[in-house]
Amino acid sequence: MGRVVVDVMPKPEILDPQGKAVAGALPRLGFTGFTSVRQGKRFELEVDGPVTDEVLAAAREAAATVLSNPVIEDVVAVIDAASLEAVPGAQA
């Protein structure tokens, strides 16, 4: 079974109150050095069989039409989750 990861973020010109709240909380909790936070959404789509180019194309179409609101959000990544497993510290 394969898995596709879709990341969606608010467009840069859209206000992000959740991101601002997190940015304000980080220094209070001892996490300094972060100047900005944007909060987005992550979707994990499981598929029967391997993740092929056709599966990725269908996931991109779903991301653009169903998983995101194109007026206020950008789809920033549609990738095979297996590619994340090769990155140390990344979670697929």
UniProtKB/TrEMBL annotation:
Transmembrane segments: none
Catalytic activity from the UniProt record: N(2)-formyl-N(1)-(5-phospho-beta-D-ribosyl)glycinamide + L-glutamine + ATP + H2O = 2-formamido-N(1)-(5-O-phospho-beta-D-ribosyl)acetamidine + L-glutamate + ADP + phosphate + H(+)
PANTHER family with a match to the protein in the record: PHOSPHORIBOSYLFORMYLGLYCINAMIDINE SYNTHASE SUBUNIT PURS (PTHR34696)
InterPro entries membership: PurS, PurS-like_sf
Domain of life the protein comes from: Bacteria
Known role: Part of the phosphoribosylformylglycinamidine synthase complex involved in the purines biosynthetic pathway. Catalyzes the ATP-dependent conversion of formylglycinamide ribonucleotide (FGAR) and glutamine to yield formylglycinamidine ribonucleotide (FGAM) and glutamate. The FGAM synthase complex is composed of three subunits. PurQ produces an ammonia molecule by converting glutamine to glutamate. PurL transfers the ammonia molecule to FGAR to form FGAM in an ATP-dependent manner.
Complex and partners: Part of the FGAM synthase complex composed of 1 PurL, 1 PurQ and 2 PurS subunits.
Family: Belongs to the PurS family.
GO molecular function: ATP binding; phosphoribosylformylglycinamidine synthase activity
Pathway assignment: Purine metabolism; IMP biosynthesis via de novo pathway; 5-amino-1-(5-phospho-D-ribosyl)imidazole from N(2)-formyl-N(1)-(5-phospho-D-ribosyl)glycinamide: step 1/2
Subcellular location: Cytoplasm
Pfam families per the UniProt record, alphabetical: PurS
BP-aspect Gene Ontology terms: 'de novo' IMP biosynthetic process
Protein keywords: ATP-binding, Cytoplasm, Ligase, Nucleotide-binding, Purine biosynthesis
Organism of origin: Sanguibacter keddieii (strain ATCC 51767 / DSM 10542 / NCFB 3025 / ST-74)
This protein's name: Phosphoribosylformylglycinamidine synthase subunit PurS
GO cellular component: cytoplasm
Enzyme Commission number(s): 6.3.5.3
